[in-house]
Design goal:
3 helices; 85 residues; mainly alpha
């Protein structure tokens, strides 16, 4: 994914959230807000991909993350008794 002036989305987020020269090591927490009326499936996709980004922003691949989230949902939801449609 490319953003303005050839910067990747990760680079834009890093600079806009943390500022230039700031390190993620000083971050003490992250809040994910999935919305009030979100459906379970979309919420799980959101949380899974957001957690994937938070785990390693520099290696984040949105397509791979989305595909992994879909596999996770269709594997785990039946085990948890949640409908995954």
């Amino acid at each position: 994914m490319e953003a303005v002036d050839g910067e990747t989305i990760t680079e834009v987020l890093d600079s806009s959230i943390l500022g230039n020269g700031t390190s993620w090591k000083h971050l003490s927490g992250i809040h994910f807000n999935h919305g009030v009326n979100s459906k379970i499936r979309t919420s799980l996709i959101y949380f899974a991909t957001a957690a994937d980004y938070a785990w390693n922003p520099k290696a984040y691949d949105p397509v791979r993350s989305y595909q992994a989230a879909i596999r996770f949902i269709y594997t785990m939801c039946p085990l948890l008794g949640i409908e995954a449609k």
